[in-house]
Design a protein that fits this description.
Elements (H helix, E strand, L loop, with lengths): L4 H5 L15 H4 L41 E2 L95 H17 L64 E4 L9 H5 L21 H8 L25 H6 L24 E2 L27 E2 L7 H12 L4 E2 L16 E2 L9 E3 L3 E3 L2 H7 L3 E5 L14 E2 L21 E3 L4 E3 L6 E3 L21 H4 L2 E5 L15 E7 L2 H5 L2 H12 L15 E7 L3 E5 L8 E5 L17 H18 L11 H14 L3 E7 L35 H12 L1 E7 L7 H10 L4 E3 L5 H17 L2 E11 L3 E7 L10 E7 L4 E7 L9 E10 L5 E13 L2 H6 L3 H15 L5 H22 L8 E4 L6 H9 L12 H12 L3 H8 L2 E4 L26 E5 L3 E6 L5 H8 L20 H16 L5 E6 L5 H5 L14 H16 L1
Parallel strand pairs: 5-6, 8-27, 10-14, 15-16, 15-19, 19-20, 20-21, 31-32
Antiparallel strand pairs: 1-18, 2-28, 3-4, 7-9, 9-25, 11-12, 12-13, 14-27, 16-17, 17-18, 22-24, 22-26, 23-25, 26-27, 29-30, 30-31
Helix pairs in contact: 3-12, 5-18, 11-12, 11-16, 13-14, 14-15, 15-21, 18-19, 18-20, 18-22, 19-20, 19-26, 23-24
Bound molecules: zinc ion.
Length: about 1150
Amino acid sequence: MSVNQQAHTGPPYGQPQPGYQGYQQPAYGGQPLPGVPQSQYGAYNGPMPGYQQPVPPQGYFPSLGFPSKGSPVSLNSDTSSLAPNFIGSLRAPPTSGAPPPASGASLPSGHLAYSQFGHGDVQNGIPTSAAPMQRPPASQPFLPGSAPTPVSQTSTFQQYGPPPAGVQQLSNHMAGMTIGSTTASAPPPAGLGYGPPTSVPPVSGSFSTTGSGLYTPYTASQGPPPTSVSQGLPLAQPPFPGQPISTQRLPTQVPGFAPPPSSTGIGPSSYPPTTGAPRPPTMPGPPLPGQTAAGPPASQPNHVSSPPPPATMAGPHPGPPMSGLHGPLPPTHPPQPGYQMQQNGSFGQVRGPQPNYGGAYPGTPNYGSQPGPPPPPKRLDPDSIPSPIQVIEDDRSNRGSEPFVTGVRGQVPPLVTTNFVVKDQGNASPRYIRCTSYNIPCTSDMAKQSQVPLAAVIKPLATLPPEETLPYLVDHGESGPVRCNRCKAYMCPFMQFIEGGRRFQCCFCSCVTEVPPHYFQHLDHTGKRVDFYDRPELSLGSYEFLATVDYCKNNKFPSPPAFIFMIDVSYNAVKSGLVRLICEELKSLIDFLPREGNMEESAIRVGFVTYNKVLHFYNVKSSLAQPQMMVVSDVADMFVPLLDGFLVNVNESRTVIASLLDQIPEMFADTRETETVFAPVIQAGLEALKAAECAGKLFIFHTSLPIAEAPGKLKNRDDKKLINTDKEKTLFQPQTSFYNNLAKDCVAQGCCVDLFLFPNQYLDVATLGVVTYQTGGSIYKYAYFQLETDQDRFLNDLRRDVQKEVGFDAVMRVRTSTGIRATDFFGAFYMSNTTDVEMAGLDCDKTITVEFKHDDKLSEDSGALLQCALLYTSCAGQRRLRIHNLSLNCCTQLADLYRNCETDTLINYLAKHAYRGVLGSPVKTVRDALINQCAQILACYRKNCASPSSAGQLILPECMKLLPVYLNCVLKSDVLQPGPEVTTDDRAYIRQLVTSMDVAETNVFFYPRLLPLTRADVDSDSLPAAIRNSEERLSKSDIYLLENGLNIFVWVGVNVQQSLIQNLFGVSSFSQISNALSTLPVLENSFSKKVRSIVDMLQVQRSRNMKLIIVKQEDKLEMLFKHFLVEDKSLSGGASYVDFLCHMHKEIRQLLS
Ligand SMILES: [Zn+2]
């Protein structure tokens, strides 16, 4: 339809601003202060040069009725061919530039103001599904710009039929359009229409990886941060029972234990690269970094990385893939006896060959030197090497009882697996920021020598447990927050007031700034301001400022955001029952949109679109008796056919919306359209937000590869043969740069895209996910979606996703004190310059990992400071700044660095770095680089910090004693070493998921939690003690639960007592247990209740609903389960923990020799 070209002539819909420079430097920095290098983020005043505000549509007039592409058609949606002819009245021009309030929807009358200390009603909490988030009312109102005036354009909208007379009439219309048309009147879809759906509903259930649940801090355990240094422990020595503090040495060199023990049991495949040739110790260069460069294809600026198929469940499970795995089942339960009692059961003992766990893995060539038959009967005793479970338990018992008070600089927080309460006394809570080390080297030389990456994992809008205080909201009125004149850092506890309080010296750049008159306060005899404790920004690590108009685009306060629900109504979606399910759910879910704590109702407006090869927009204005549909079939040049009535207030349009949601499933019930478009859908949502001049979120429910003719059309390019070749990286890259450009436009508008995928085959997650990833959105994937088994999981995810706190149109800047600076960023966002992380939407689950490098020397006296400032628009349209400050120690001795590291955070960084690396380098190169970097980290410790000992001993720093086991898990993950059942989409999906994970999530994702259910105390609320992830830890007579944040497995041993089976599954024997269950039956007995409560507890802790999978020992699904027993050798060639440790030792020795 070229008819409407004219429509575009006008600025109406705010053409995509060419280079949206919105937050860019120039403008965004506020008045450029002379000599101020990086002020940017600060002022944000002035008209942004590059960013044009959407101009009120002027090009077209309502009444003119020029042909529009949108046609208020009354025909069937499927009849795309008809649509074109209609002239829509649409595009009613908003009379003013004011954001079009949906049908007179009332815009929030003014933004609420908060008193200085109003408790920020930030809504940190997770809204429980039923309870809309509420927060203590803030305080005084603040009236920024007057609320935009609603423009009503009722008249403009033409209806396709007779004017809405009555409900009935309209409904008939709708009915006619849809249903009716499909059959008779509607011309067959232009395209292929009627052919039988090509893709048919999947057969089996899938294992998709999503999981949800509220994310709460882990309840589990805790562990003490290692404080001291290590002491070497020769292998032969008696074990070190649980020495929490001192470092342990793992002597590798045991008599009988060939020096290159590593070679023994390690499967060849695991360390391809390193293998033979000893790596030159000089390889120092952080290999990883280098890769980065190669990195992400241009298209993915932000380094999109997708996580490895987690659960890997990805593959169709039941299905075929598994079968492949079928192979020889590993001896299920290796006779525990395998363990020979080594004389000293300790640390590095040598053990005899274990029965099933034999040194050499059949089938796999030996790694390393010994080509021949694996000789190695001697191996390290798994019980003698560092245990994640022990470390977690120790931290829990040592640090779980006391609150973590943040007043001391450089304090290492308890582990993420420890339950603890945080008291903010000047530094941000570890729930907001965690660092790889809390004591950083003073010089870059030291940093390079150690190879320990300096990074912070930041979760700016993290949810806090109820017992902790939400950040206070500070309102400085029109003058806005007080900032350093030079670097623009925000007032914080580390600023030094001088000259009687008249000026302050910046803790980041040392510049001295005058204290504004209104902010002046006297100092006490210690030099501290008298009002120190009355001001959050002087005494706390985290707080918020109410932003002034200077921090808004175009110097205009934002309108409240909008949510647009965009539903695929192609054959697959309809047939599976998905469309009906979504519509039913939305009817109630729209009553739980996020809202500011003190508001009666949400300020968020909603809109609805359905699509297959064409798009259908709906007018749900409150004054209508029935919704009206407008079809846009010219997807090549997307526009929104109506302004007024598209985005509406839920309460005002409730009945019309309900009617629409009732009708949609009926309208498309008989569709035969199997093709879909995708990019035009995002474009439509983007255009709608532009026209409304607001930020917002698109919720897209999509089922297939978009092959219909349209921009962003894709082809099936899946090719597993590329695995392990130099072209493997292309599987992670988008197949076209189209989506990158679209993402850029979305970010400029504050249009965040959340994607719910329901694929029955390859749909190219790597490409479809680009916009979601770069706009800060979330992807959920339900492969082979089946109503019965997957609907609860999907609905839980959807509910949580819709209700969770989101900051829109966000920009994050991390400032640092002189000597270090942020140099690299990992996460779901977009960057148009090197310092500002832009996110159309940032929710409470999203994490950004920031890497720092030295650019000068640091001093032990002053330490190092970080200040993370996030500028965002709240769900009510209020512009705010959230500030997090953290002070770290600096050291001149490497030992201090190694004593203050956090391995869980280190792994989070290393995984994200590696997952980004696969976009530009062969996977093998990425794995080698990871191993090399860690070997260097440990070798540096051994060389500089450990007491002299024989080279045969492996000595690990106490704080990093789990580095080898966790690193091995990352190396074996589906992104870096996929098993045969893992699909290309799963890998791309996981790669993206991991990139936004926080430390707790990566921890459990890479080293799943394994709980013996049969040992749970039914009378207590606690979880049974976790055990290590190895098959040899399982007993045939027990039932276990394993969770990794995406899936929950319940494994049942063949010898489990019949009564337990009866109690848990309600069947009388092992053979009767169905592995098709997606939930545990609700039975009235204590064991059933206990297990279900454990499952519920775990679900609540995670940000996604985890898929429950029942696995019977020796059943074929068990292969899938074993994939998660990460201490064992994996089917895809990953090394066992013991073997990997030996391998690492060998690498370290090579570096030291
Ligand atoms: Zn400064």
